[in-house]
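Report of the visiting student (M.T.), summer placement. My assignment was to run the structure pipeline on a short list of targets and document each run. The first record concerns PUM-HD domain-containing protein.
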Amino acid sequence: METSSGSSVEKLMLSVENLSLIEGRTDMKNCQFFSPRKCHSAADGGSLPEKIQETRINGLPLYPARFANSTLVPPPLFPGTIWGSNNLGDGWDFRGSRLQTGEKSFVRNFNSPSNSVLDEGASSVRSNRGLSDYSVVQNQEKLNNVRNFPCLLQGDRFVNYCLDKDGSRTLHGLLSLRDPEITCQICKKVLDLSPGGIPIVFDLMLDQHGRHVFAELIDSLNNQQLKLITSEITKDLSNFITLIFDIHGSNSIKKVIRALRRSHLISFVTNNLCAAFYLIMTNRTGSYVVSECLNHLRAEDNNLLYEAAIACCLDLAMDHEGSIALIRVINTIQGLQRYRLLDILSINAVFLSQDPEGNYVIQKVISLNNPLFTQKVCQLLIGHYVTISLQKGGSHIVEKCLDTEWKSWIIESFLSSTNTLLHVAKDEFGNYVIQKALKVTKQSGSPLYHKLLSRLKPHLRILQSGYGRNVFNLITSGQPVKKV
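After the run finished, the structure tokens were exported:
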């Protein structure tokens, strides 16, 4: 037997000329395959068949393969499950002994002929028995979606597909492949005008199914494509506000904000929010878009929004939705702008405390426990404590002031007149203020506690009826009545 490498390769090629290699498996026709696993070496206590003579080439044993006119071939070095190429085409590779999908796309050319990469990929799926039935069906579905993709871009079919539950899932799946050509074509399509004369991207953003396609598209775009989309949805302020006020549209805008939070392109969005700031902040759905910026953008990117909030803070404080949104601004605003905002609100504490909505903002300022602004509020309210104690919202403010180190200013206002003290104690809201005053002065051991008792005890009979009964019970039993 020749032992040269060239002769060995030539003879090996001749010995397997009747083999049909299909994806790493060998199929034999009308032959008996000899498996070396059935042989036992002498070391295992057995012996080789008499007709088999061990021959070695480069240290490897060779055995007859029992093909006609064949030479000796080496035994397999690896299990049959991993025979074959380590790469079966674009998007597929071996991992262990199972064939799995990679992250590459299935196709690069949408107009490929019948014997294209698509068909080869589909053949690989059908021929590989290692894949589970679910995986085969799932991957075949992806292949079919890619094949049908050019048809989806024709006429109004694309819009209808985006707004349909199953169609949106199909497009979502295509975008998740992260194929640049697919993403590019969808991006171009959504920037086209719809039959209604507005860009298709607005139809997607305002629809419950379409917004999911839009969200996946945003994740797939490069910087230049993001700029085109952002420019389109922000160039018309009225259309932008329509998006902001719609629940699906606002969620779509929030997606854009998160995608652009590290990009200079975010200024497209924040400039529009500032241009209609009061209108947006007094709308519940729209105000949460501003909050998205405040929560996720850098302070420098929120600078214009902070300035807009400072400029119209008093108007916002007196609006129901605006006051709620303004409190969210107080929670997030930073630096010198935070000081300016809180200073304006504190200076206007007298009239905001008596406003049905503004009182909540003043309560927020006091609850921050910033001595500078808390003292300013407590000082400015001197002379008004009796009045605001008789109001639902104002009474809460007075109670919060009684928890500060400037509580003596409030109590002395009540002690200025016995009739005033009794009037507050018998009021629907004021009785809770007097209870609070008795409680905090007693706990602190303040002499003001005994002054309050000395003024109230001679009039316990008057306090036994109506809302004054709450103060009466506290003085006689020592148990305060909880405010509802």
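Residues 133-152 form the longest helix (20 residues). Residues 1-52, 62-131 have pLDDT under 50 and may be disordered. I thank the supervising group for their guidance throughout the placement.
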